[in-house]
Description:
The complex is a heterodimer of chains A (424) and B (489). Chain A contains eight helices and 19 strands. Chain A has 424 residues and is α/β, with parallel strands linked by helices.
Amino acid sequence: MNMQTTSRQTAAEAALIDAFNQHVGDLPGNGAVISARDRLVDDLKTNGLPTRRVEAWHYTDLKTLLRALPAMQPAGLVAAPAPLVETASVIVMQDGHADGKASVEGVVVGTFDAMLREGTAAPGLSVIDGDDTIGKINGSFVRDGYVLEFPEGVEIEQPIEIQALHGAGQIHTRFPVSFGAASKATVIERHVATTDGQAFVSSVSDISLEDGADVTWIVLQEQGSSDTHLGQVRIRVGADAKLRLFVINAGGKLVRQELRVDVAGEGADLQLRGVNLLGGDTHTDVTLVLGHNVPNTTSTEIFRNVVFDRARGVFQGMIKVALDAQKTDARMACNTLLMSDDAEFAAKPELEIFADDVQCGHGATVADIDDNHLYYLMARGIPRSKARAMLVNAFVAEIVEELDDEALVEALETVISGWLERHA
Amino acid sequence: MAAVQETIDQVRQIDVDQYKYGFETEIEVEKAPKGLSEEIIRFISAKKQEPDWMLEWRLDAYRRWLTMEEPGWARVDYPRIDFNDIYYYAAPKTTSGPKSLDEVDPELLKVYEKLGIPLKEQEILAGVDKPRVAVDAVFDSVSVVTTFKKELAKAGVIFMSISEAVREHPELVKKYLGSVVPTTDNYYATLNSAVFTDGSFVYVPKGVRCPMELSTYFRINEKNTGQFERTLIIADEGAYVSYLEGCTAPQRDENQLHAAVVELVALDDAEIKYSTVQNWYPGDKQGKGGIYNFVTKRGDCRGDRSKISWTQVETGSAITWKYPSCILRGDDSRGEFYSIAVSNGHQQIDSGTKMIHLGKNTSSRIISKGIAAGVSQNTYRGQVSAHRKATNARNFTQCDSLLIGDRCGAHTVPYIEAKNSSAQFEHEATTSKISEDQLFYCLQRGIPEEAAIALIVNGFVKEVIQELPMEFAVEAQKLIGISLEGSVG
């Protein structure tokens, strides 16, 4: 292992800096925002994109994997897809732009563009730590997004679907969302490519749950087969709040989904679930950093991955228990099915524990489909290919079934089985 | 139960903060000047009467080392090491190597006596029941004595210090040295390649089952010296050998560096069992002093159906940075790693293993038990990978951490990489403190708290202790008890 002390700027790195220099004039934002952007771009200029030597990016060497960037201006939009759940309230982002007139009953809806222009967005354009490359890129280029505020005690029955639709080009969006105390809602954050052209997407959801909020947040990523998707969900969870966070990856060429969760209030309870459907030449990385920072909190994390073709999957899951976070109960599991000889998967489930009165564990498996299960089905006259498909489907659908909302479960199962039919 | 009781008694007898092996011995010593340079390397090589190729090998490594940077990825924290403030060569003053025990400095023999290591063959031979163990004792930079050489030679087993082997069996050394851990491997391994002073060499010929346990005891005695030993073990086709190393050092205020390299080569159907009881001086209660233990250990299952098994009990050292690994190159080869890592006081451990599956139908098993007490930090870092051609690779990993006290940290960092769909990897890890229920159960039966904890800890590490040769299992259990001394209450 040789240390490389100096490194050349890559084409993609140069393109990022160039794009910023060219377009800084037409990015929205007041003085405070502009200086925040400048700081982030300077950081990118000095440190470049992360390589495998950066531990947090060990399996996703962005410097090598990100080859080139598409033009800044997105283009090529077609019609919006139907919402996952028929009764959902839909708000649409088109090519990275929010609709200023969008509204959802019971929720205060604003645009991030307005926040940027007013300058109230400036403090949020910061990075979580030095490894937060997504925060750097998104903060430098972000144009728009929805700002949602769920008032205290509000209960929204039907899911809210944010449709982030785009064609080719660069799209940088941000969704600051606050759930007031004891509010209750389900939000679907859906990223969909509507054309085959190459897109470069960065998206940050900056979410806070006040005390006692009860929230289901679903990220469904269905980018095109040549797209780069750099997604980040930052969540702060308050006391006695309940969070169900589901992340489903079913597209994209180079994908990194970062979940940065700060469990900040006692009595908080989290269920984090992930389904990664990987096929073709995709490189998909899900990185979770979960900080249990106060006593008496619980969490479970289950990630299921199915890897076809020449796809490469990565799961990095870090549970951190802070010094005084006694009585933490955290369990994480990551199970992977490798469906082809050219498929690869790397898992790094980490525990970092500084408190002693805790129960923490993780498990990880990588394997092919269990021969016994296959035999069981085939013995009942089900052909091999169908039996395999059934088992794979069951393996991932199990996760989705934990959701309470039946219509939502059905919709997500349709997405999953549709994807599997196309790839199996 | 007897062993458990012994642990408890041992713990009671000993004052808090006492390191049993902390004595220093006044022995006349010959040292090379402080610091590191080509001259020093030439000096070491000349002292060892090495052939030219060996010197060149060292110099190559040294030049390479100059271009390298110290790794910073491990979860350990220490001030920068001044590599020019270390003596790279220190040897008890004797002219040429001792021919028999009578020629060895009596002070030295006392050292080993104090350590409880029998060097006198006849004593062992007299005790009919006692298992026989051949010992190679390394004091600072040189091997002082190797026992049972003749008897081993009868079986065809070569067991000697590596410096002797360089002179007497250059063809074997040339063929295998650096073939598992190349001189370019990592910062400390490269440093070791340049300056290694002594260590053990074992060659077990085809079809031979080594008739006794082999063991090496390492002792750092001199101030400001670094110990850089190099061990090379080769098990030829169908051979079997079990090897144990133990290490101790005097109590000192400053830190001392220990950067060893161990290479194991197992050919077709061969098996090597390597056990370590590492008890370097861990520093005092305030975290002052102690050994920096930066070690590269790697086994190469080069032949089909070969097996390498690592067992380690780590209780000493201020900082441990060590990943005994297996390269499963041969088809149907097997790697095992059993570890107990105990940290107390200000100790920092970053240890684990690598299982690199390259051949077909290879399997590996990892059992790691970490126990953290005091304000120590205990990290398991392990890698399991299956190469694209490693069909039917199997791994099972279990790493459990036990926390004693609320100021220590336990961390688990596994890297699981599968590039073959027929690979089956299972990994599980848990972290918790001693179960209240178990403790209550013991206390309620009148077992005092400290004894109860020793009992529970011994239960926690049982799976690993079982893997140790019997006589060392008892020693290891005692050590764990002593290491955790003062961590309760």
